[in-house]
Amino acid sequence: MLNQHKILRVLQLISYLQEAPHKTINQLATFLDSTERTVYRYLDLLRECGFDLHKDHNQRYYIEQQPTDGIYFTPEEAELLKSLVLSTGKSSKLKDSLLSKIYMGSELPMVATHLLHAKNGKAVERLTKAMMNKEQVVLKKYQSINSESISDRLVEPFGFTENYHTVMAFEPSTQKNKTYNIDRIGSVEYTGTVFKHETLHEQQIPDVFGFAFSGKKYPLRLELPFKEFLLLKDRYPLIAPFTNYHPKLDRYVLEVEVNDLRPVEEMVSPR
């Protein structure tokens, strides 16, 4: 069964192989922090899933990027299909084609690029291990938008959001379940202390700005010129699936329901 950790590795490997230059087996083993034998298993999995994996005359591997031929999954379809991939046995040929199409026809390339960032990838790897071991960790130098501060946070991590941009965790000091943006974590430090509040863990799904639900939702519609849209997307990449260009307005229109309006208020506040 493809678990969440394995899918993380696959996404990172796909994005790495799509970048120039081509990669040797040794480079791939170093990137994955694994043996060459494990690398060959991952390469076989990519071939099974239908990715265009090639080897050049120097025995270096690469993936050719292919057009989607107009196939694009909505966020809801991608979420459902990804859950099927997670729950379907390895022998399913449908699973193999789905994984390829979900990657090529959804937001997953953006997710893979996010995970390829050295700091983000390392944080996700360490958080994954802590979840498996049910171990408390310290999020070092976490940059909080809410408190406008940088501090260390002792937490019990128990899950990622669908896109790996945030981690869900229980914070003993506040006795609250929160979501933490992976980009804003300086590093993840193991404590060697097992979970003490597992019965209080409760899933917190953030909005496109990274804010968890706090009792109220707000419908949001923004008409943005090209420059403002790019700036907002760079800061909050999850707005992309909810934004469309309207030629008559010559604006990018964002329509989505959010848990907090502060990011929008920051945009319109006097500078």
What descriptive keywords fit this protein?
SH3 type barrels; flat; 3-stranded antiparallel beta sheet; 271 residues; 5-stranded antiparallel beta sheet; Arc Repressor Mutant, subunit A; 3 domains; alpha+beta
Question: What can you see in these coordinates?
Answer:
There is one protein chain. By secondary structure, the chain is an alpha+beta fold. The chain folds into three domains: 4-115, Arc Repressor Mutant, subunit A, CATH 1.10.10; 129-200, SH3 type barrels; 218-268, no CATH class. 38% of the residues lie in helices and 25% in strands. The protein contains nine helices and ten strands. A five-stranded antiparallel β-sheet has the order 6-5-4-3-7, covered by helices on one side. It has a three-stranded antiparallel β-sheet with strand order 8-10-9. A two-stranded antiparallel sheet has the order 1-2. Mean pLDDT is 77; it is low at 67-73, 85-99 and 103-110.
Level of helix content?
Answer: 25-40%
How would a crystallographer describe the biggest sheet?
5 strands, antiparallel
Order of helices and strands: HHHEEHHHHEEEEEEHEEH
What's the quaternary structure here?
A: single chain
Strand content bin = 15-25%
* The first-level CATH class name of the largest domain: Mainly Alpha
* Number of domain modules: 3
Bulk shape: flat
Task: Report, as a whole number of angstroms, the end-to-end distance.
Answer: 51 Å
CATH topological fold name of the largest domain: Arc Repressor Mutant, subunit A
